[in-house]
Specification:
This protein has 512 residues and is α/β, with parallel strands linked by helices. The chain contains 20 helices and 20 strands. This is Flp pilus assembly complex ATPase component TadA.
Length: 512
Amino acid sequence: MTEISAEPVDLEPAELTLAPLPVAVLTAPGGPHAIKEDLRQVLAMTADGKLYISPQHVSDPYVMAFMDQLEHKGIDYEVVSASMTEIKTLYQASASRGMKALVETQRQAQVVEFMGDAHRRGASDVHIVVSHDVTRIKYRLYGVLQEVRQEKSDVGREFCAALYNSMCDVSGDYYQPHIAQDARVSRKFVDQLGLYGARVATRPLVDGPLMVMRLLYDDTSKQSFEELGFLPQQIEHFRRLRSLPYGLNLITGPTGSGKSKTLQVNLNALYDETGGSRHILTLEHPPEYPLKANQSPIYAGETWGDGITNAVRLDPDVLMYGELRDLASAQAAYTGAMTGHQSWSTLHTNNVIATIQRLIDMGVADYLVTDPLLTTGIANQSLVPVLCPACRIPLRDHTHGISKDLFARLKQLQIVDQVNLVGEGCSKCRNLGVVDRTVIAETLLTNVKLMDTFTKRSASAARRYWVNEMGGITKIAHGIMKVTSGEVDPRDAELFAGPLDFDRQLMEQSDV
């Protein structure tokens, strides 16, 4: 539902302060929502999603028709009351302070528009998928891709070129649709849109290019493990790992599973618990989220080895490596742990035990990976959508909505009466049926017996030992808890974590 602010906006013609840089007025001539001159006297829409309207003209049929057009296109906005003089000032400031330089082309303005729309909806990623006849623009909302608009194929190619060539920091490079490329959106644009940052990756497909933008938020809404959705036992495990003097701790999971957010909450908790008395130093390629730490990038030409050699000379107590992407970064992380530092990083793996094998497959020496004094802790997590409390529906009244196999699994777990499914959507959830995402996770504090079981028997045997002897709570088990509470659709739990009976199957296996 569009919000209307009753308070008039206070703008001075001499100094417009709507954003760190001039905000593009999308209704200006040549803009993506250009309107006629008489309507521009009473209305202005800016790229940050604000629709400034003269209070005397809110009910004007032309104003209402424009608002209907925006809603029909699925564009979110916030109505702000402004005088006609203030609206005129917006248009003047846009022209006089370099809008043409900031938004050089119509395509660039359209990119700014849909990036702003994605930001307002809370999307984590924006996909531009160009085929031979159409361009599809998709947002990832609460972990699920949704198509939001279509354009002609040529328009999509122009979007990609405008974004990469004129909106990204790319040291002399230019957009080449036939090869894979990576870039970051320039600071002036992410500031304008209210983002912390935005990464861009491209790859040629059979029918045309694919460009994906990862939107990075300075999200202050969830700053504790409880708010993220972790269990008390898991929170205690993180607290224990923060108290250790040295060792490598990894937060793992698939792409888009919230690893960096968990790492942010954890390191900020460490800073707060120690009153800032420990030097937390990061090596990131590049920094993505703000931390209560000294954040440093791996600069051009610097290797991970160079970075760690320099870092240990800077008197750190805690080292954080943004992501273990290859052998060099993994070896750097273990070097930090071996030189007496508490070290943290992220890695893409399926579960906590699989992380041990993944590190070995990357080339890290077995004796380092399986030493519980070096590999001290592992967490694995996924994010699942949280059902809208207002429109979720009970499974017992809608059993036709799920497969027979899933119903059988829920019946075996004896939780059919507690389960809810996603509803059709309502005004509370923007017709999505979900309102948030929550963590389902598993955490492991390593020990000698676990590592010995992994080395001498198998990964499956080590996982069974962790569950049966160490009381480990698996990600599946955590997912079942959230399904049982009615907050997560069981179909989403299985989509992001696996079949709900997967643990039982594993526990019934015997070593070969």
